[in-house]
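Hey, quick one: can you model this chain's 3D structure?
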Amino acid sequence: MFNNSHTGISFSDGMIYFTKLKKTFSGFELAGYGQKELPSGLFENGKIKDKEELVKVLRALRAEQNIRSAFVAVPTDDEGLIENFEEAFNLAGITIKEIETEGEAIFRSVVPVESYDEYMIVNIRNSTTGIYIVADRKVAFETNINIGGDTIMKITEEKTTHERGLDREVVTSMISSAVMTGVQILREEVNKYFVRWHTRRDATDPERPMINKVILCGDASYLKGLDEYFTVTLKTNTEFANVWMNILEPSKKIPELTYKESLSFAGALGAALKGFK
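Sure thing. Here's the predicted structure for all 277 residues.
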């Protein structure tokens, strides 16, 4: 029997996100969404450090939102990590309909369904960043790096903490310079994988297609001018994600989520969409 609604769940460094999509005669509707903060130290280097705490959070989510089953997106495809997630959801009483990587889920929500172009998706979280390369309508490469929004903020604080009594314009300039330093570090790491994709070839993959666009999303991605900076420095068109492109018709009203908030829900929305494929 066709189910007209599905729930998607995804995880960031310190948050769990959920969305509920409902299919109607006129298209999709966002029937519910939200987030819950995860205890500090629950995840470390892509691993679950405290499974009992995760079970507590999932049980609370199940009770508060009446979630009995969900499509789930997790940070990596590590078998041990996936097994831990499956066990945690089982103990919490939530049935996993299907589990996949965050890159696969985000790809489903931010890349047009009719497009066969190549994309690099940069999912900037607070302490880590996921980098996914899409080719021939599948995620061909996926990795996580230990640089995120917190890195940029830390550099900014280190460069401005000891400066007191300066003119406001000077302080503003210093902060802008410090932020740019953090952005440059992130860009350099992203560029490594951008260049590697285009230069590393072998007998089974002699000519990799060129990446046509870079898409930015994630909790810490919305920094004014970041898309323009990446466009110029990577020499490739870069834009912030439109998480509704495969969900809502252009004429339909955008849900009450702000645009900045929506960038955090790309994985959860993509996971929920899988239920309708």
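One thing worth noting: The chain has eight helices and twelve strands.
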